[in-house]
Design brief:
- With about 260 residues, the chain is an alpha+beta fold.
- It is about 30% helix and about 20% strand.
- Strands 6, 7, 10 and 11 form a 4-stranded antiparallel beta sheet that branches. A 3-stranded antiparallel beta sheet has the order 2-3-4, with helices on one face.
- Helix 2 crosses helix 4.
- It is globular and about 60 Å long.
- The N terminus is likely disordered.
Length: about 260
C-alpha cells in the first residue's frame, strides 16, 4: 500500500472515531444551547516541516475532511480503502455549533468559542471548555498557541484583565481579584494521577468535584497570569517525560475570589 494513501486512511479512521465520540447535538435544546460542540480542522502539514523526506506522489494528496458549511463536514475515504464497501465513501457529520476551516485563525476561534464564555464569567457565571482530539491534532496550539500566535487561554486572560481594568477606571468599588489553578491528569495504565502544576506537592486527591490540596494563586494582572501559565507548562512537560505516561489531560481553572 502506498505510504501516503495509508497515512490518509489512518487519519480518516482517527477523525471518524473522534467525530463519533463527540456529544450528539440535540434539537430539543433551546437557544442558546447549554452545550456547544465546535470542530476545528487542522491544516495539512507543510512538506518543509516533515522530519522524513516526503515520497513523490503520482497523484494529488487526497483531502479526507471538508467543511461544506458552517455547521457540518463531509468525511471521504478512498473507495479502494473502505473496510465496508456498503458503508459508502462519504459520511456527513452535522449539528456542530460551528466548523472552522484549516485556514481559520486563533482569533476566529476565540471570538466564537471562548469570548462568550469569558463574558459570562465576568458576569458571574461558570464556564467550561474541553479540547478533544487525537495526538497531533494541535489541541495545545489551539489552547495555548505561541508568543506570536496566542491561543484561547492567553487571549481569554488578556480579555479578562483588560475588561476588568476598563471597568474599574473611575469606579469607587475595589478592583476585582482572581485566583488561578493549574493541574494535570496523567493516565498511566489503568490508573490516573493528578498533579498540581503550580506547586511541588505530591499527587492530589479528587473528592467528588473538588481537588483536595490544589494550590490557588492570586493574580492581579495579565503578566502574573502569563508567568503562571509558562511555569505550569514547563512542569507539565517535565512531569509527562518523567512519568512516561501514555496520555495526559491538562485542565486550567480561573475563578473569582
Amino acid at each position: 500500500m502506498d505510504d501516503t494513501v495509508r497515512a490518509h486512511t489512518n487519519i480518516a479512521d482517527k477523525i471518524s472515531r473522534c467525530l463519533l465520540a463527540l456529544p450528539k447535538p440535540s434539537l430539543s435544546i433551546p437557544t442558546p444551547e447549554r452545550l456547544k460542540v465546535f470542530l476545528r480542522i487542522r491544516p495539512l502539514p507543510e512538506r518543509g516541516h516533515c522530519k522524513a523526506k516526503a515520497p513523490k506522489l503520482k497523484q494529488p494528496a487526497h483531502v479526507c475532511l471538508v467543511a461544506n458549511d458552517s455547521n457540518f463536514v463531509a468525511l471521504t475515504v478512498l473507495h479502494s480503502k473502505l473496510i465496508d464497501p456498503n458503508r459508502g465513501c462519504t459520511e456527513v457529520f452535522n449539528g456542530f455549533s460551528a466548523v472552522f476551516s484549516p485556514d481559520s485563525s486563533q482569533h476566529d476561534v476565540f471570538s466564537q468559542v471562548m469570548n462568550p464564555l469569558v463574558d459570562e464569567f465576568l458576569g458571574g457565571k461558570s464556564g467550561l471548555l474541553v479540547a478533544m482530539g487525537p495526538t497531533g491534532s494541535r489541541k495545545t496550539h489551539t489552547v495555548f498557541g505561541s508568543p506570536r500566535n496566542p491561543g484561547l487561554l492567553p487571549l481569554a486572560l488578556r480579555h479578562i484583565f483588560s475588561s476588568t481594568n476598563e471597568g474599574c477606571k473611575g469606579a469607587s468599588q475595589p478592583t476585582r481579584s482572581f485566583c488561578f489553578s493549574m493541574f494535570e491528569i496523567l493516565s498511566e495504565g489503568k490508573g490516573e494521577r493528578i498533579l498540581d502544576l503550580l506547586s511541588d506537592a505530591t499527587d492530589l486527591v479528587l473528592q467528588q468535584s473538588t481537588i483536595k490540596g490544589l494550590k490557588e494563586v492570586s493574580i492581579e494582572n495579565f503578566t502574573d497570569a502569563e508567568a503562571l501559565v509558562l511555569s505550569g507548562m514547563l512542569k507539565r512537560s517535565t512531569a509527562a517525560t518523567n512519568a512516561n505516561s501514555k496520555s495526559r489531560h491538562g485542565t486550567r481553572l480561573l475563578e473569582n475570589q
